[in-house]
Amino acid sequence: MSHNKYHVIQDEPHRWRNIEELVYKDEDGAATFKDVTRRVLFGEDHVDGMEVRYFEVDAGGHTTLEKHEHTHLVIPIKGKGACLVGDEVLPLAMHDLVYVPSWAWHQFRADENEVFGFLCLVKVERDRPTLPTQDELNEMKSNPAVANFIRHQ
Amino acid sequence: MSHNKYHVIQDEPHRWRNIEELVYKDEDGAATFKDVTRRVLFGEDHVDGMEVRYFEVDAGGHTTLEKHEHTHLVIPIKGKGACLVGDEVLPLAMHDLVYVPSWAWHQFRADENEVFGFLCLVKVERDRPTLPTQDELNEMKSNPAVANFIRHQ
Q1: What chain A residue is nearest to B43 in terms of C-alpha separation?
Q2: Interface contact B93-A7, CB threshold 8 A
Q3: Could you tell me which residues of chain B have a Cβ less than 8 Å from any Cβ in chain A?
Q4: How many independent structural domains does chain B possess?
Q5: Residue B96, Cβ density class (10 Å: 0-12 exposed, 13-18 middle, ≥19 buried)
Q6: Is residue B2 part of a domain?
Q7: B121 to chain A: which residues are within 8 Å by CB?
Q8: What is the torsional sign of CA B7, B63, B57, A116?
Q9: Which residues of A carry out catalysis?
């Protein structure tokens, strides 16, 4: 067994030793997502100010539709899903990579019959997400592909 | 087909669309490694000054034994191997994570019968690696586990 705090061991697929499952969001916005869990693989004392998280979205579930100044680097490692980034809907599968730039609207969804899991790198020091206003939602929905994709309450 | 430059698509396992295979190192040190290829998945105009590379080490191969100021975040995504980090030898397999701190000696090896592939995140702006002097090698080799693991010419 390794006692190196910089060594995170996957004991079974998509489950890591001494890494607990967390709720996706502790704060507000519980109505904005569906069936998402979170695990922090590398936290704040690691990796030059970067955090590495693993999110798992159950079949049919989705993360919050949001934007913020900080960026995401996302690497799917389980199942299939898709994401909105800005005004594009991108299919995502194992070992693809996608980058979410500053202030791009984004949302991740699992396919209907697939649990979708992905690593997500962020800065430790980061701003809080912003949810869309009704005007912003209306503007997003003027794009049929986006309107069809997004889930928001 | 996606034309989003922030979307990198894995077309077949561990091979990505429009991402070419590169030699592991262009510069000096060709005698210091064995059977390693490199692919740059996200390069210098991405991810807040971070690069994401994929390295693949053929069965029995190894990267260069080296150290530097910049750090690595490594995520194995194919096969099995091991690494030296500082004075520890750590086994590595699919979806483990390991962080290489500044100035830690490190080397990655594939198992004898396994191609070993891993993602490695680094800063775009980074220093050149330093190779061990004979004195440093001798000191490393005073630890039997390290002596047994490292490969260096």
Answers
A1: A99
A2: no
A3: 2, 4, 6-10, 13-14, 16, 41-42, 46-48, 50, 52, 71, 73, 75, 77, 85, 88, 90, 93-101, 119, 121, 123
A4: 1
A5: buried
A6: no
A7: 47, 50, 121
A8: negative
A9: 120
CATH of the domain at A96: 2.60.120.10
Residue B3 lies in a domain: no
State both tokens at A36.
């998402």
3-state secondary structure string across A11-34? EECCEECCCCCEECCCCCCHHHCE
Spatial separation of the C-alpha atoms in residues A34 and A57, rounded to whole Å: 8
pLDDT surpassing 60 at residue A2:
no
By mean pLDDT, which of A27-41, A106-120, B11-25, B73-87 is the weakest? A27-41
In a domain, A87, yes or no: yes
Does the beta-carbon distance from B46 to A88 stay under 8 Å?
no
pTM here?
0.93
ipTM metric: 0.92
Contact between A109 and A57 under an 8 Å Cβ cutoff? The reply is yes
Report DSSP letters for B25-38, one per residue. Answer: -SSS-GGG-EEEEE
Q: Is residue A2 part of a domain?
A: no
Q: Tokens 């997004």 sit at which residue?
A: A150
Q: Which domain holds residue A59?
A: 10-149
Contact B10 A93 (CB under 8 A): yes
